Amino acid sequence: MIRFGTRIVAAFTRGDMGQRGTALWRSFAVGAAVFACAFAFGLIYSASFSVMGVRVQALEDFVFAEFKWLILLHQAKILAAYVAIGGTSGAAAGYCIHAWCAATNRRVPVSKAVVPVALYSTVFMLAFLIADIRNHPALYNEHFHARGAVLAGFQMLVTHGMPGLVIDALRLVVSAGFIPITIGVMVHLGGTLYGACARLPRRALLILAAGAALAVILWMVPFNRNDGPNLVIIAADSFRHDRVSAWGRRRGLTPNIDALVKEGTSLQDFHVQLPRTFPSWYSLLSGRYPAQHGIRHMFPTADQLAAARLDLPETLRKNGYVTSAVADYAGDIFSRMSCFDRVRAPSFNFTTLIRQRGLEIHFFLLPFIQNAPGRCLFPETRAFAQNSDPSFLVGDIKSEIDALAAGKRFFLTVFFSATHFPYASPHPYYKKYTDPAYRGEYRYLKINNPLSESMVTRDDRRQIEGLFDGACSAVDDAVGEVVDHLKRRGLYDDSIIVFTADHGENLYDHGLDLGHGEHFRGEYATHVPMIIKFHRGYAPMARAREYTGVVEQVDFAPTMLDVLGIKNAGSDAAGISYRGVIEGTVTHIPRTAYAETGIWFVAEGAQFFQRMRIRYPDVSVLCGLAEPDMDVVLKDEYLDLINIAKHRTVFDENHKLIYMPTRDGVRYELLRRGDTAFVNRASAEVAAFARLERVLRETVLRHENVAIVNGLFIPKRER
C-alpha cells in the first residue's frame, strides 16, 4: 500500500511547470487538496446539529437517523464547492509559476512547485476568512469567540485589533495572484473570438455589432412604462418605534428614515395585533384580526394559509398591480403566501434548516459564498440568522425595482431582518454603538438560550442594546439606498413609500426581559413606526404630518385602498380607514386597540411571564413536519390549548387591560399607559377596568367561536 502511494506521488510530481497543461492541472489538484482538507477539518471541528448555538441531543439523533441521505448529498455539494474554489486558487498559483518559467526560460519541476502552490492556496483561504470574520463576525462566533481562550482572542484581534486597511490589503495582495491567469484566459478567449469573427462575412459582423450596441443601450438606459401610483412597503423586523431618531431619541441613528418622516405622515401611536412575524403580516395586509384571518402563530398549515385572505395585495392585483415581495432571513413567510406574483425570499422548512446547519459548520467556505453566485448555489445562505446583512438584500431589491418599472404600477413589499434576534449586523455596524472593552459572550450577537436570561448582566444588556442599534443603523442605510434607487428610476414621486415593522422588541427595559410576543407589559413589542410618504397625486391632500391617536395595524389596508381610490370587496375587515385624519378633515378617531400573544417557544424559564401562564410543551413537542415540503407546523391536538393560553390586551390612549389565563384562573392587570412601574390599578380604577373588560369580551366574542367558562375564553367544538 505504501509502495502504491509512493508511485502515485511520483507520477503526480513528474513533469515541468513550463508546460502549461501540466502546470495548470497539477496545481489545480494541489489547491483542491488543500481546500478538501479544510472541508474535513470543518466536519471534525463543528459537526453537530444545533440552531444558533443551541444543541438538543434528541433532535440531533432524529436528524442524523432520518435525513442521512440529504446530509450526505449536501456535504458532497459542499465538497465540490471546496474543490472548485481551491483548485482555482491552485491553478492561479501554478499559472504564475508557469508564466515565470516562460519569461525566464527556466525549468521548474512539479515536485518543487507543490509546496508554493499549497502555501498560496492556504494563505488565499485564510486571507478571505479573516476579511469575512471582520465583515460578518456573528457568522463565525460559534467557531471562534464562543470557544474562548486563544480562538476568542483571535476573533477579537481581527474585529477590533487589526486595522481594516491591513485586512483589505492582505486580501488584495493575495487576490493579485489571479491577475496572470485572468489575463491569459482573456487573451486566449479574445484570440478565439477574433478568429471566429474573421471567418464571418461583413454583413454578419455588422449585425453582431448592432446587436451588441443595442444590448448595451438597453442595459444602461432605464426604460420605464410605469404610471403609478405604486405602493412600496419597507419594513424591518423587530424595529422599535423609539429607534426613529426624528422623534427625539437616538439622535442621528436613522437619517434616511427621518427624511421620510419630513416628507410624509407619521401615525405615532400605531400598534400591531400579534407581535410575531407571520400573524403580523397577515393582519397588516388583510385588515383583519388574527382570529379572523386564522394565522395566530408562526407554524400554520398549508390549509390555514390557503384559507387566509390578504385583501390589500389581492385587491391591488385585481386592479392591475404587479405584486412582489423581497426579503431575507425572517421573510421566509412570503414564500408561502399566494398573493404575490413575484417573490424573492428564502423558503424555510426542516430540510432548509438541515442544509443551513450543514453549511455553516464549514467556516472556511463561507467567505467565498457571500455573494450573488454563492447565494444562488446555496440558497440556504439567505436564511442565515447570523448573517442577515442588509446590503445583500439591497441588490435584490434594486433589480426587482428595475423589473417592476417595466409595468404600469406595482406593489412591492421589502422586509429586512437584521434587526431581528440575534441582532447580527455586519461591519461596521456591530461595533458602532457597542463598548470596545466588552468581553462577554454577546460580543457579536445575542446567543439564543432562554434559560440563561436570568444571568444576563447590566454590561450584557448594554452590549445587546448596542448590537440592536447597530442593526437599526444598517437597515436605515439600506432604506436610503432603496429610496435613492427609486429616485434614479424616476419612481419616487409616483410611489407611496411606507416604513414600518412587523412588531417591536423588548430589550430588558424596566424588567421586561428580551423578545416579543410573550407578554403585554410595556409597549415596546407592539408599538412600531408607521411612516407614509404619499405619491404626488395625493401628497397635497395629506395635510396631517403627525397623528397621535391610537391606530391599529388592521387599519393600514383599508386606509391604503381608500387613499388609492380602490374599493375593497371584503366586508368583514376589523380595520377602518384613516384617510380623513390624514387629510385633516377628521381630527381624532376614538379607538380601543386589541392584541394577543403568540406561542411560547420554551416551556420554562425565570422570566416573569412564565409564572403567569397556562403551561404547555416547548416548540419541539408542539410542532411536527408536514409533507411533502417538510414544513414545521403546529400539531392539531395543541391548537385549542394554544388559543386558550393566549394573553390578550385592549388599550386606549390612557389605559391598558391585560388578560392572563393561568391554571388557577384568570389574572387581570389594569395599567396606565406609560407607567414603567406596572402598578396594577384594577381595584383602584373600577370604571376603566369595567369598560376595557367589556371591550375585550365583546371583541373576542365577535371574532372568535368561543364560550366564556370561569372567565376563560374556551374554543367551541364544531359539530
Question: What does the model show?
Answer:
The structure is a single chain. The protein is globular, with a radius of gyration of 29 Å. The protein folds into three domains: 11-221 and 351-379, no CATH class; 232-350 and 380-595, Alkaline Phosphatase, subunit A; 637-715, Arylsulfatase, C-terminal domain (2-Layer Sandwich). With 719 residues, it is an alpha/beta fold. The strands form six sheets. The chain has an eight-stranded mixed sheet, with helices on both faces. It has a four-stranded antiparallel sheet with strand order 13-16-17-18, with helices on one face. A two-stranded antiparallel ribbon has the order 1-2. It is built from 23 helices and 20 strands. The termini are far apart. 44% of the residues lie in helices and 13% in strands. α4 packs across α5 (110-135) and α17 runs parallel beside α18.
Structure in a nutshell:
By secondary structure, this protein is α/β, with parallel strands linked by helices. 44% of the residues lie in helices and 13% in strands.
Helix and strand topology:
Blueprint (H helix, E strand, L loop, with lengths): L1 H11 L7 H27 L3 E2 L2 E2 L1 H10 L1 H37 L5 H26 L13 H13 L2 H12 L3 H20 L3 H19 L9 E7 L18 H9 L1 E7 L5 H10 L3 H4 L8 H6 L3 H8 L3 E6 L14 E3 L5 H11 L11 H6 L12 H15 L5 E7 L41 H31 L6 E6 L5 E2 L6 E2 L14 E4 L12 E7 L3 H8 L15 H5 L9 E4 L22 H4 E4 L4 E4 L4 H7 L2 E4 L3 E8 L2 E8 L13 H18 L2 E4 L2 E4 L4
Parallel strand pairs: 3-7, 3-8, 4-12, 5-6, 5-7
Antiparallel strand pairs: 1-2, 4-11, 8-11, 9-10, 13-16, 14-15, 16-17, 17-18, 19-20
Helix pairs in contact: 2-4, 2-5, 4-5, 4-8, 4-15, 5-6, 5-7, 14-19, 17-18
